[in-house]
Specification:
- The complex is a heterodimer of chains A (about 120) and B (about 110).
- Chain A has about 120 residues and is mainly β.
- Chain A has strands at about 10-15, 20-25, 30-40, 45-50, 55, 60-65, 70-75, 85-90, 110-115.
- In chain A, the strands form two sheets. A five-stranded mixed sheet of chain A has the order 1-9-8-3-4, with no helix packed on it.
- Chain A is globular and about 40 Å long.
- Chain B is mainly beta and about 110 residues long.
- Chain B is built from no helices and eleven strands.
- Classes of the chains: A mainly beta (about 120), B mainly beta (about 110).
- The interface of A and B includes residues 42 and 43 of A.
Chain lengths: ~120, ~110
């Protein structure tokens, strides 16, 4: 799976948009970009994923560059409860069998702190 | 009730003791996983199971074993606990909506080996 690079930490003012970048310059054509977040010592929570097109759901938007070498997760109106570590993960589409399965690998992520 | 439930939430045990961490899920997913997390590090995969008869080692399986008792239950055992197994342990399940992989994690078990 492609390696990802994220800044270790970011701050954002409450109510403003939080834009979290991720570089994945070695991404392959069949690899998805996933975003998860982990609020202090809780289990990681799925946010959004995409392949080529930009995606939006009730939690966030995902902007993927045309060359797919980087992406940005956007939390449009950050709240204090959005303070968490955000993980950008790149991996192939699912394996049908477990023999060659490669599972989600969580790196160090970005610590987002939303300030009041 | 939580979709993925882990018990216990916290546990302190002595070196050399056998301990079991339990995980149950109501998601109806076939795939289940055990991860550990150490301070300042990401999650590392210990074991995973694609169905009741399928168990696979992850990147750090030494010192651990698992049992998939049913589709909904996946237990992690430390046969003889050692202090460097002190960590936060997460169970997860996954499904495959539209070909992607979406994980649901439990709230974690904080294990301390003294």
């Amino acid at each position: 799976d492609a390696k990802t690079t994220q800044p270790p930490s970011m701050d954002c003012a409450e109510g403003r948009a939080a834009n979290l970048p991720c570089n994945h310059s070695t991404i392959s054509g069949n690899e998805y970009v996933y975003w998860y977040r982990q609020i202090h010592s809780q289990g990681p929570q799925y946010i959004i994923h995409g392949l080529k097109n930009n995606e939006t759901n009730e939690m966030a938007s995902l902007i993927i560059t045309e060359d797919r070498k980087s992406s940005t997760l956007i939390l449009p109106h950050a709240t204090l409860r959005d303070t968490a570590v955000y993980y950008c993960i790149v991996r192939v589409r699912h394996q049908i069998s477990s023999g060659s399965a490669r599972q989600l690998t969580f790196g160090s992520g970005t610590q987002l702190t939303v300030l009041p | 009730d939580a979709d993925v439930t882990q018990t216990p939430r916290n546990r302190i045990t002595k070196t050399g003791k056998r301990i079991m961490l339990e995980c149950s899920q109501t998601k109806g997913h076939d795939r289940m996983y055990w991860y550990r997390q150490d301070p300042g590090l990401g999650l590392r995969l210990i074991y995973y199971s694609f169905d009741v008869k399928d168990i696979n080692k992850g990147e750090i399986s030494d010192g651990y074993s698992v049992s998939r008792q049913a589709q909904a239950k996946f237990s992690l055992s430390l046969e003889s606990a050692i202090p460097n197994q002190t960590a936060l342990y997460f169970c997860a399940t996954s499904d495959l909506p539209g070909g992607s992989v979406r994980y649901t994690f439990g709230s974690g078990t904080r294990l301390t080996v003294v």
